[in-house]
Structure formats: C-alpha cells, structure tokens
TrEMBL record:
Protein name listed in UniProt: FAD-binding oxidoreductase
Chain ranges of the FAD-binding PCMH-type domain: 38-220
InterPro entries cross-referenced by the UniProt entry: FAD-bd_oxidored_4_C, FAD-bd_PCMH, FAD-bd_PCMH-like_sf, FAD-bd_PCMH_sub1, FAD-bd_PCMH_sub2, FAD-linked_Oxase-like_C, FAD-oxidored/transferase_4, Oxid_FAD_bind_N
Keywords from the UniProt entry: FAD, Flavoprotein
Length: 473
C-alpha cells in the first residue's frame, strides 16, 4: 500500500475538515483497538466524514493513490474486522458523525438512516413513531447501523424477525472507486435483476462502504411476556421451543439458552442480578413473547403454556416476570454474558450455528471434545437456540495462565469447528470473519464458494484497497 505523502494528507484534511481529522496518537488510539483489547493496529490517520459526498471523495482519492481503507462503525465487533493492520499505512474511515435518521415513514413502515446512527437511537426513534426496529443485541448502546449491516448482525430477536439482511430494503454505498450507488429503494417487491444490496451486507467493508440504508419497521407490540425457565437439558429446550411455537401463535420473539455457570457468574459480577429459583438447575431458557392487543392476555397464555410444558417434563420450574423491572433484570443477566467472561479470566470464543434440531448433539459432542483436550476448562455455551446460533465459549481454567490458555485457541477452534461442520453448521453465525477467522474460513470453506467470493471481490475492488486483510485477505 502507498504511504501517505504530505500532499495526500493535506488533501484528505481539506476533504473532511478539522472536525473529521484525527492524527495524534492519543486521539487515534480508541479507533485502533478492538472491543476485547486483543487486536491493535496502526493507522496513517483516522477520518470522520460527515456526508456521503465526503466519503466518496475520500475513497476516490485513496483509490487513485492505492491507499488501504478500513471502514469502521462503533468498533464493537469481536473478530477485529474494523482494526487496521500493524503496518500503519491504512486510513480508518469512521462513520460516527454520519448519524442522522433521515426519514421515518410510519405508513410505509420504513426508516432511512445513516450508517453512523447508533442502534439504540434508531430503536428509540422507531418507538416514538409507534413502531419497532427489532434488531437487538448486547452492544446496541454503541454499535452502529453500518457495522450491523456490514456484519449481517443477528441478536436475540432473529427467531421472529430475521438477521439484519432480512430487515433491509435498500442501501446507499460508496464503491471502491469513490462512485456512489444510490440503492435507497423502499420497495417490498423488485425483480429487476440482481439484488445488489446483498453483495454489501455481510461483506465487512471489503466491497464498499455502506453510508445509509432503508430499513423495515414493524408494529410496536402491545403486550410482552418474559419468562425465565429451568430446563433439564438442551434437548428439552429444543422440544420446548417446538411445542411453544404453535401454542403461542408463533409469537415468540426470543428464545435464549444459558447454562448454570452463566447465572452464577452474572450473579457474581453484575449488580441486581439474582437467581429467582429456590434451587440450582443445569440449564435455563429466557423467553420473550410479544403480541398485539388482539391476542388476549398474553401473560396468562404464557403461564398456561408453561404449565403444560412442566407437565410434559420440558420445564422443571419457571418464573414469569411480574413487571417490566423483573423482565429487564432477566434480560440484564443474558446481555451481561459477553462482559462477565472478561471478569472470569477470559475465554476462547466460537460464534457458531447448526440446525436447531442438532444443537443438543453439538453441545454434547463439542463439550466432551474440549474437555478431553483441556480437562479443567469451563464450557460456557449460551445463545440463540431458537435459530441455532450458539456462542460456544470456553472459559479459562482457574489457575491457568491467560497466555497459555489463549495459545490453545487454534487447537480448540479446530476441534469445535470440525464437529459443527460435520453437522452442516457454520463457523460464523453473526459476528463475521474479520481478521480473526480468516484462516479458519480458508481451511473450512467450500473451495468453489471461496472462488466465487474472490471473483466478486476482484470485480468490485480490483486494487484490493477495501479493508485489506479481512474476510478474504
């Protein structure tokens, strides 16, 4: 990649202005390290453009001069997809200043939003319009829409509403040569050729920079029931989900599986999180059911459905939230699990998916294989069992040196991924590939799929300036 000359630096500064220019080491530091603090790079400069036109001009200048570009949103990712290389010759383009909600159309059930908008701010704006934007994840207070799109974020409501890809109608994208594709269409039906927006969703900034999107909104639920259930096994949780879906009219929004260890650690490290049960159980399921007023008393329906599940042996005990505060406490426990792993000494993480019916088999086989390799390891699997996405994380054994544990990452990754691939699974369900999983993608992906992706990359970004070293290299 080209080293920035004084002339190029001056031109970039002119394009973004003083408010969009960061070149002092201390000021750049927050943009150069990933959320977990495991990956740190260097950058020639950090740019924070304010408009799509500015992004286009910056990218065009970088393209003409062969300068590598690292697009960045809230930098909350877990695979170092928004971290520049250690070489220090790349430009970080952070979209945080492009945070406007351009328009909400309640009749169309759509919102036009810029890439730098924080997810929680979009959720609040949608609610003010008596609508809901259903993407929900632990980092929603800091992650940005552009990053959600670039990684095809999932979260806890995928069971009901789908991933980010399912929530998009149109995109605005700055291409690798600086041209701007305006695909901000609000159409629900459009069969005029290739659906180009899907090239850029989940591309992790390797094909262009998403600067705005048209997203789907949904009716604001009039009733919500939240319950924490103790279950005897993952197999029981899958059977429970299958039984509850027709019983609730398929109104289940979230269905989260957590092990006993998760409840213990959340209770230890997170304020106001307590065990609501009289005795410990091996597994728990957190469920949320949302519906409109026409469904009758949804809380009563939930209690009746859980009573039937207890009779069948799918559920050992259950607590239905009596009020909003108790429901929020249940969710606080679930959403804290990424953080508590830090407090517990760190973990080797896997963001995997398998068919829902195979979740129990995967958990059994992968847990046994990991414990055979590291007998004192603490398996910490949790996640969206309703869509087959499990965060199969392994906590460091108590007393083991962190560096010694992290040195086993590749070995444990191979063990876990080989098991799930034999079940038709994926090594990345919602976090992406980034830099962390790139070698593993090359090892495990179908060669033809890799070839097709590389052809797309070569067609759109022939000079390889967009997010070098991520996804495909």
């Amino acid at each position: 990649m080209t080293i920035l000359t004084a002339e190029i630096r001056d031109r970039l500064r002119d394009l973004v202005g003083e408010k969009g220019w960061i070149d002092k080491a201390a000021d750049m530091a927050p943009y150069l390290t990933d959320w977990r603090g495991l990956a740190t790079g260097r950058a020639a400069v950090v740019l924070r453009p304010e408009t799509t036109a500015q992004v286009g001009e910056v990218v065009a200048l970088c393209s003409r001069n062969g300068i590598g570009i690292v697009p960045q949103g809230g930098n909350t990712g877990l695979v170092a997809g928004a971290v520049p290389s250690p070489a220090g010759d790349q430009v970080v383009i952070n979209l945080g200043r492009m945070n406007r909600i351009r328009e909400i159309d309640p009749l169309d059930y759509t919102v036009v939003v810029e890439a730098g908008c924080i997810l929680a701010d979009l959720q609040t704006a949608a609610k003010a319009a008596d609508r809901v934007f259903p993407l929900s994840l632990g980092a929603e207070g800091s992650c940005q829409i552009g990053g959600n799109l670039a990684t095809n974020a999932g979260g806890v409501m995928t069971l009901r509403y789908g991933n980010m890809r399912d929530l998009v109608l149109g995109l605005e994208v700055v291409l690798p040569d600086g041209r701007i594709w305006n695909g901000l269409r609000r159409l629900r039906k459009n069969n005029t050729g290739y659906d180009l927006k899907h090239l850029f969703i989940a591309a992790e900034g390797t094909l262009g920079i998403i600067t705005a999107a048209v997203l789907k909104l949904f009716p604001l639920p009039q009733q919500t029931a939240i319950a924490l259930m103790a279950v005897p096994s993952p197999q029981a949780s899958v059977a429970l989900l299958a039984a509850l879906r027709p019983r609730t009219g398929d109104a289940i929004t979230a269905f989260e599986l957590v092990p006993r260890l998760a409840l213990d650690l959340a209770g230890r490290y997170v304020p106001d999180v307590t065990d609501p049960f009289d005795k410990p159980h091996p597994w728990y399921v957190l469920i949320e059911i949302d519906a409109g007023g026409e469904r009758g008393d949804i809380r009563q329906m939930t209690e009746e459905a859980l009573a039937a599940a207890i009779e069948k042996g799918f559920v050992l005990d259950a607590v239905v939230a009596q009020n909003v505060a108790q429901g929020q406490k249940f969710w606080r426990m679930r959403e804290s699990l990424a953080e508590v792993q830090k407090e517990a000494g760190g973990s080797i993480r896997h963001d995997i998916s398998v068919p829902v019916s195979r979740v129990p088999q995967f958990l059994e086989e992968a847990t046994a294989a990991v414990l055979k390799a590291i007998p004192d390891a603490r398996p910490f699997p949790f996640g969206h069992v309703g869509d087959g996405n499990i965060h199969f994380n392994i906590l460091k054994p108590i007393g083991m040196e962190p560096k010694s544990f992290q040195a086993r990452t590749t070995e444990i990754n191979t063990i876990v991924h080989d098991i799930l691939l034999a079940m038709g699974g994926s090594i990345s369900a919602e976090h992406g590939i980034g830099a962390v999983r790139r070698a593993e993608l090359e090892r495990t992906a179908d060669p033809l799929e890799l070839e097709l992706m590389q052809r797309v990359k070569a067609a759109l970004d022939p000079d390889g300036i967009m997010n070098p070293g991520k996804l495909l290299g």
